[in-house]
Each structure stands twice: as C-alpha cells, then as structure tokens.
Amino acid sequence: MLRGLWKLTWIEIKVFMREPLGAFGTIGFPVVVFLVIGRVAGRNIPAPSLATSGFLRVGLPVLVALLIAVSSVISLVTIVSIYREGGILKRLRATPLRPQTILTAHVIVKLALTAATLALMVLAGKRYYPIGIHVPWFGFTIALLISTLCILSIGFLIASIVPTARFAQPIGAAILYPMIGISGLFTPLDSMPPVLHAAALALPMTYAVSLLGGIWKGDAWSAHRGDVAALALVFFVCTALSAKVFRWE
Amino acid sequence: MNNLKSPRPVIQVSGIRKTYGRTVAIDEVSFEVNDGEIFGLIGPNGAGKTTTMECIEGIRTLDRGTISVLGLDPFRQVYKLQDRIGVQLQQAQLQKRIKVWEAIDLWASLYKKKPADAERLLDQLGLADKRDAWFMNLSGGQKQRLFIALALINDPEVVFLDELTTGLDPQARRAIWDLVRGIRERGKTVFLTTHLMEEAERLCDRVAIIERGRIIDIDTPQRLVDRHCPERTVVLATDDLTAEERFRAIPRIESLERSDMQFTIRGRGEDLVTEVIHCLSENRMRVTDFRMIVPNLEDVFLKLTGHSIRD
Fold this sequence. Notes:
The complex is a heterodimer.
Chain A: H1 5-18, H2 22-41, H3 54-85, H4 88-93, H5 99-128, H6 137-161, H7 165-181, H8 194-202, H9 204-217, H10 225-245
Helix pairs in contact in A: 1-5, 2-5, 3-5, 3-6, 3-7, 3-9, 6-7, 6-9, 6-10, 9-10
Chain B: E1 9-20, E2 23-34, E3 38-42, H1 49-56, E4 64-69, H2 78-84, E5 85-88, H3 100-109, H4 118-124, H5 140-152, E6 158-162, H6 170-185, E7 189-194, H7 197-203, E8 206-211, E9 214-219, H8 221-228, E10 231-238, H9 243-248, E11 253-259, E12 262-268, H10 271-282, E13 287-293, H11 297-305
Parallel strand pairs in B: 3-7, 3-8, 5-6, 6-7
Antiparallel strand pairs in B: 1-2, 1-4, 8-9, 10-12, 10-13, 11-12
C-alpha cells in the first residue's frame, strides 16, 4: 500500500520548484534553447519532404526526447544521493513510509517533469518543425514513458552504488550519455565496428532509440515487440538489483 | 503513581549484538523500559547508543539477541511498530525547502491512527509563527522542535529521542526538557540517549550507562550515585575554637581538613550531613558558610569507566 504517496509526490514537486534553478533549469531552459536554435536555424532547415532530412525528421525528435529523459534521470540520481547524504532518506524510513513509496514519488515527479518539458518542446517546435504534425503523439509518449522507466531503473542502480552525492551527477552522465552515442541514432548499427556493435546491442538505449524512432515514423507496435521486451528486461533486472544493493544512509 | 502498579515493560532488549565489519558496536546489551517512564541510555560518543536505539526502532538488523517493543518484533513487524512509535533521529535533515506545515501535514498522513492536533502541537512547540518557513531557514532549536513535533504527530505510545539537545544553547535545552516531561505526563514512554549527564539526571527516571558497546549499570540516577559514589563532603566555615576537636568526634567521618577557619569534612552516606548539623546545633557553633558537595552521574561515570564522559 502506498500511503502518503500523493502527498509526498506533491511536496517533492513543490520543493523542486523552489530550487533556484529547479523549474527553469529543467523545463524552461531546454525550451528556450530550442526556441533560439529554431529562430536562428529555422529558415535554413530544408523542407521536410526532402529525403536527406532523415535525421532531422526522426533522429532529432528522438534525441531530444532521450536527452530530456536522461537529464531527469541524472537529476534523480543526484537527488537520491543528496537525500541519502543529508539523512533525509533515513528520516523518511523511520516512518511507516514504505521505501518503494519514497522512490515511486521521485519517479512520478521525474516522469511528470519529462512529460511537461516534452509537451512544451512540442508546442515550441510546431512553429519551426512542421513535420511533427502527423506524428502519433500518444504512442510516442507511451514509448518515451517506457524508455524513461528503463533509464530510471539504471539511474536507481547508479544511485544505489555511488559513494557520495558529489560523484552522482558525473557518474550518471558518464554512464548514460555514451549509451546514446552508440545507440544507432548517429551511426547505423551495421556500420559500427563489431565491438561497438556488440556493446550497442547489449545496452538498453539502442532499443529505446529503435522504439522511439519507429513509433515516431508511424510503425505499428507489433514491429517493436523486441524493443519493448528488451527495455522491460533491463527494467526488471536493474530494479531487482537496486532493491538488493540500495543504501539508505 | 507508577510505583503503585507493578511496572509493565514496553521495551525488552535481551542480549543483543551488532557488528559493523569487524567492529563490535554493541554486545550483550540487555535492559527493559517500563510503561510511562523516561529511560535514558547514557554514554560517550561512539559507545553504541544510537546503534542500540536504531535496532529497537527496527531500522537496523541484529546479529544476535532479541528485542520486543509493545509486543512486536521491531525488524519483522517494522511497519506495524512504526505506526505506534515516534522517532527523532540524530542529525536528521529534511528537504531544504520543505515548509514546516508541509512536513507536519505529510507526517500526519502517513499513520493509520488519527493524527494529533497539528496546530496545537505547533503551538506547544513554539513553531506556530514558523509554519510557512522553509526547513533550511530554521535555527537549530527550531529544527529540533520540528523533529519532536514529527515524532509526536501520530500520538505514539513510545517516543524515541536521540541526542535531542546536542548543539542547543542552555536555554533551548531547558525548554526541550520541559517538553519531554510533558510527553511523559501524557502517559507516553520516552526512550532517549544523551551524553549530557545533567540532562540524564534532570530528565530520566532510570538510566542505563553504556560504554564501549556494553551496559555497565542500570538504575535511577539517585540510586546509581548512592551505589557507586556514596562519598559526601561538607564544607563549612566557623570561628568556634573548639570546632576541630568536636568535628573529629563525629562518628564515621573519614577525613577532616582545615584551612584557616574553613573545614572540609568527608564521609560516606546520607547520615554524614545529619551528624554534622547535629554537632553544630548541639554545640551552638556560629557558622558563616555551609556547603555540601554531592556526587552526580558524572562522578559515577568517572568511577565506573575510569575516564570522564567528555574524553
């Protein structure tokens, strides 16, 4: 039973919004950057019907979505380790709050922020990237939620084992960003050296990219059963592992 | 009034041991805490106070031994237990930017029982005008009072307070002591740890002295002093020329020192003072100064461990 979940979630959102850079840094900043780039580069972007704009049409939206997801996961890793170092996790634990309630509240906060940022980006992007109009938004949102949950579980595993809060952010970034690099988003998997190819196939980000890109292009879900299964597998393995090794103090 | 009924233990600790790696934090620790008393676990930093308390609260596992709190196993039935106890942890923090009322509101929502009247609690703890303040902007004393409020929000049967006045100024400390006595008056049991002997002496009905992970002795502060430090000293000044001779005749005195007109009389047991006063009045001696030096828990600790608690 998740007693206190909604109250804790709401308080965590409020506390986060009170951070000097909390709301703007997470939601506002990406949108502003996006708008500025759009204004500067907007006129130079070739018409969407051109075959050469493949990355722009599919790769860029997927990249943006993943970056939002990864940055919110990294901020989750940081918050969990700060809470641990400050004894907040321990204090919450000495109440009838279940551990999973505390963690679920944080996941909900991060998912909500991811969704809010994505929605703002879409609104802002509509002006500059008219290609997005026929995109299956509902399906894409679901795909992003699945991908984010999977990345979150990796984040929790990192949060469970980072020694101090100071290392949380760099370690999280060092693990997650390279995963995007070899996910097949920039270089097709087939043209990678065999070692990188094998690594890419072992990493969940590759499946997230495949799922997000496919859904964005309008693929049927049935074509991406393998991706969803891979993401779910990583989610369950990482969640089970972090439940074993998570430290409260 | 508690003396009239036979004491009912609400906490029973029996032979517990806890190690961290190769360090033995506590070993063979056993004691009972009775319903409605303030029980103090006293000892220097690192003696095992917090470890013992956290094992009882169910947030640490034991290596050996058993604990029962309100008839529950604190580790296996931790959620059931946490519904009925209130906990203040040493050096705990809350979210920097959480408001006082938000913390109270959150805590109140966590318990099955109908929560205590939050507004009244804030009022009693002198936090009413701070209800909209962020946690990070509270003073040390205000933070501690908030933690006490959180520990009391579920109207708990047993309240755990770990080093709750550490870092507070003497005035704030006294105010907190009054609050703790108030908790007992409402029929709650209080289990606290402290390394301040004065705090233990003024607040606790019974104390257990812990040193290097082991309990050395348990009793009321008064009985501990009587048992381990029965020495009594009377210092008085008189210009009576026969004084020295008469004092020497007092039964059971162990030493008599004189410096000018001031006498220091040492002996054992409560009777010493009675004997001295009897001698003074019988001989109608004029006394210009009269002081008693009574040992306290600090002296008991020194005697039992061979070092001061501050070392």
